[in-house]
């Protein structure tokens, strides 16, 4: 088996099949771990830990605990990113002990083999897991904005930032920077932030973030960026501007497709992703595409789940949780609405643990079908990323809210009891 790309769609399943005795080659042109480990999930969550710590210090007064500051040393927080990612990369290297890892760029030959430099590799099964990279905005002055990859390289915290894009990446950056003391403006094209997320949850998150001081402007179309980092945009036909030390562009991701795919008869979709069927087969026999590059679900755990199906024959679960690591977090799984469905809403304020912890800003929306089984759960609030793990099996196995399981008291999870 040949796997192109050493991100979450590549390394985990590669290790699994190699451990089971298969002859596996994994080709990676950059660092093992892909976007997730090097430019995505892990660096952002490491910096968010610093941001949350600073925010907690500021909030400590409500518990009667007075502390000074906080004074943020961003250089130190940034150094921690390298420590964490280096450690995780070593773990991946050990995991791949039985895999032949080739360093270099993989290119398809017209007969469907894979070339790295002068060396040709062929195998009955080839898996493309080449991921994605930041999309850019096509407006005059776009070069004055930096993308998420470039932001994560900065070792100095800007005093102010305009973030173009109020999707998952844009809002995570907004929350991260705001917690660290940077003045943040978010400019979003759609009428609501987090397009695609349950509208009750997105609206509530917007109001929580605004209350923390983040300026969020929706329905705003960016038209230009000046060299002094002034962002021009129109809202309801009116021209407006926002200026900051740094402009971060978070307007989506585009696929990274290996050279030679067209000549090898591997088709792309209209949006440039590799076209796959529901079993992640491309239009060329024996060639599969998993993860961000097929555009089906651009999340690390989705890439891994798709790879496990293709390489290890594992069943692909239906319920795909997604988390937005803002402060507070958003987490969702399953359906939001639809015919014959009803929703129940449980505010965090009704939960003893949330009240005791002073974490009452939050809402859990549970979507039930005609059989009273859970088909969707949507959460905004502290620890939503942990709480969604309780909800996901209910959606996956089509179960009602549990009445036959004991929940420890007082816990936030009790909010999901029958
Ligand atoms: P990638 O991780 O992009 O890996 C692809 C690999 O292929 C790369 O290492 C690349 O160098 C290599 N490659 C590309 N072309 C070639 C070639 N021709 N030859 C050899 N090698 C090649 N997802 C989450 O689930 N949770 C999060 O919290 C989260 N946070 C994120 C935060 C940010 C800022 C960003 C940008 C993304 C985040 N994501 C998150 C998304 C997540 O990173 C991706 O969904 C995931 O990395 C996709 O995995 P992949 O294996 O498909 O691709």
- Low-confidence stretches are none
What count of helical segments does DSSP give? 10
Q: Output the strand order for the largest sheet.
A: 3-2-1-7-17
Mean pLDDT: 97
Biggest pleated-sheet summary: 5 strands, parallel
Explain this structure to me?
This protein starts with a strand and ends in a 22-residue tail after the last helix. It is 28% helix and 23% strand. Helix 1 (11-19) packs parallel to helix 8 (300-312), helix 3 (41-59) crosses helix 4 and helix 3 crosses helix 6. It is built from ten helices and 22 strands. By secondary structure, it is of the alpha/beta class. Strand 10 (183-187), helix 7 (199-211) and strand 11 (215-217) form a beta-alpha-beta unit. The protein is globular, with a radius of gyration of 23 Å. The protein has helices spanning 11-19, 34-39, 41-59, 74-95, 148-153, 168-179, 199-211, 300-312, 352-356, 384-396, and strands at residues 2-4, 25-28, 100-103, 106-108, 114-116, 119-121, 126-128, 132-134, 160-164, 183-187, 215-217, 220-225, 230-235, 238-243, 246-249, 253-255, 287-289, 322-324, 329-334, 342-347, 363-368, 374-381.
Secondary structure layout plus pairing:
Layout: E1 2-4, H1 11-19, E2 25-28, H2 34-39, H3 41-59, H4 74-95, E3 100-103, E4 106-108, E5 114-116, E6 119-121, E7 126-128, E8 132-134, H5 148-153, E9 160-164, H6 168-179, E10 183-187, H7 199-211, E11 215-217, E12 220-225, E13 230-235, E14 238-243, E15 246-249, E16 253-255, E17 287-289, H8 300-312, E18 322-324, E19 329-334, E20 342-347, H9 352-356, E21 363-368, E22 374-381, H10 384-396
Parallel strand pairs: 1-2, 1-7, 2-3, 7-17, 9-10, 9-15, 10-11
Antiparallel strand pairs: 4-5, 5-6, 8-16, 12-13, 13-14, 18-19, 19-22, 20-21, 21-22
Helix pairs in contact: 1-8, 3-4, 3-6
